[in-house]
Structure formats: structure tokens, C-alpha cells
Amino acid sequence: MSVAMNRRLFLETAALGLLAACGDNQGPSVVQTEESTADVDPSTLPKLSIATWQTPQEDKEAIIEEARRLTTEAVNALGGMSRFISKGDVVFIKPNIGWDRRPEQAANTNPDVVATLVKLCYEAGAAKVRISDFTCMDEQRTFVRSGIQKAATAEGAEVFFLDKRKFKEMNVGGKTLPTWPIYTEFVECDKRINVPIAKTHNHALLTLSIKNLMGMMDDPRNQLHQNLGPAMADIASFLKTDLVVLDAIRILKRNGPTGGDPKDVERKDTIVAGVDPVAIDAFGATLFDLKPEDLSIVTESEKLGVGTKDYESLKPVRLSIS
Hints:
There is one protein chain. This protein is an alpha/beta fold. The chain has helices at about 5-20, 60-75, 110-125, 140-145, 150-155, 185-190, 210, 230-240, 275-285, 295-305, and strands at about 50-55, 90-95, 130, 160, 165-170, 180-185, 190-195, 195-200, 205, 245-250, 265-275, 315-320. The strands form two sheets. Strands 1, 2, 3, 4, 7, 8, 9, 10, 11 and 12 form a ten-stranded mixed β-sheet that branches.
């Protein structure tokens, strides 16, 4: 059976299941298939999907399959990757690759989530998929140990170290950040996909999708920590992304962002995908028993019109996968 047929069958099934579970007045009335999105008004398509695995896997290979299926189905529930990626696009995928940690330590984005997005981009017609991050530890170690370099390269992505010469002072236009050096290739690419992992952070309380954009900013980034909410809201308003995919398969509940102790990791077996980074970060807060308004990045970004913290108002498509 073809990939396109698999997607169509899944989405038709998901739509029927959603309607049966939610009734006529909740959730989107129709889940569009990837093949149909070209002629559909994007405003009528789902803005948020939440895919959760029913029974957490323990076997390493089974966890890989879980990550790939959750990612694929979360994106498909939005209408498929062709809603976001067109033939010939150069796509920049921005995961968190900041730390010299293994995937099971939940400090970096799950490598199989990233690899799946690469695969979906190429299937949608992307000409090139590029992946990088401004690491906090040695990049040659973090890219390898995170598993992202190997997994994404295997799907055809170009995984590269940032070239410091390509940061350029840009007019961010914010009250807190009028200008800041930003990585030019992230701004100039055709499409941008933000792929954070959900984890705690000693300055931001949590690091989710908007905080993850800091990886495309040059130093001195530590100067932002005293006014992080308004600063990152300015960046989120300037650096628009086409798709956000939040990795919550494993979350780092304590001692983030670096982690290291397996006892700090909790399985949530969830992937959240959407077009509203504020809504995604607001939902992400609930994974840590926090409220959206507890996160200054969320509240400040909402003030600037980046999105809404009322994620339920987007009528998220909820998928239970097994």
C-alpha cells in the first residue's frame, strides 16, 4: 500500500473516531487529508493536534516506532506535511541539540521525531532539509550523542554546525529586543519547522517551542535571562515558524535544561503539532502540572499576538494511538 494511501486511510479513520468521541459540537467537523489540502482554505484546517500512545513501550525498537508513528499521525491530523511544505522548498528544521546527552535523558529532541519530519518533508516535495542548533556543549559531541545527526542524515537531511559568520544583526522590531544577531539561513529558508523537547529550565521555568528559538540567536544570549519573557516574545513575533512539533515522548521534569539523571525523566508518550506556538507551549505547561499563565514567555507572546494560550479554543484533534 502506498504512503499516500496509508495517510488517507489513517486520516479518514481519525476523523470518524474524533467525531464519535467528541460529538457534533466539539473538535473540527472534518479532518482533511494531505492530498486535499492544496485547494483548502488553511483557516478551515485544524490548528492543533495531540497524539498520545496508549501503552508506553519499553523495548528500544518499539519506542522508535512509537516516536515515528506519533509524529506522522500528529502531522497528518493537521492535513499532512504538504499543507506546510511545497515542491522545491528548502526547509530548516530546528530541534534542541544543545546538550551532550543520550535520547533517554530527555535533554535533546527525540532523534526519531526529527528523522520522521525529515522523511515527511521529502515526501511532500522538499528539495533540501537542513538541521542545526546553537549548542551549549561541544557541538561535535552533542550532534552525535543526541542521536539526531545519525537519524536525520539517514533520511537525507543535511545536519551541519552553525557558521558564526552567518549571524547577522537584524531588526527584530521589539520593545525589549529592537535588534539581535540571528542566523541568516534560518530567516532566508523557504519553510521553518520548530521541534523542541518539553523540559524544565532554571530561568524560563520550562523550555518549549518559543524558548527553543533561542538556538538561532547569537550570543550574548545570557543577557536575556533577566527579561526572558518579553525578549522571547519579541523573537517569536519576528521568527515565524510554519509548523511546531513538541516532543513530549519523554519530558525532563527536574534539573533542566541539562538533565543527566534518568530519575528526572518522565514518559508522556505524546507529540503535539500545530501552527500556534503559544497554544502549544500553553498545553506543554500542563504536562508539568503548571498553568499557561505561569510561563512569562507564554503570556508575553500572547500579548504580542503571536498566538493564544487558550489552546482548547483551537479545538485540538486528539488521537489515541496504539
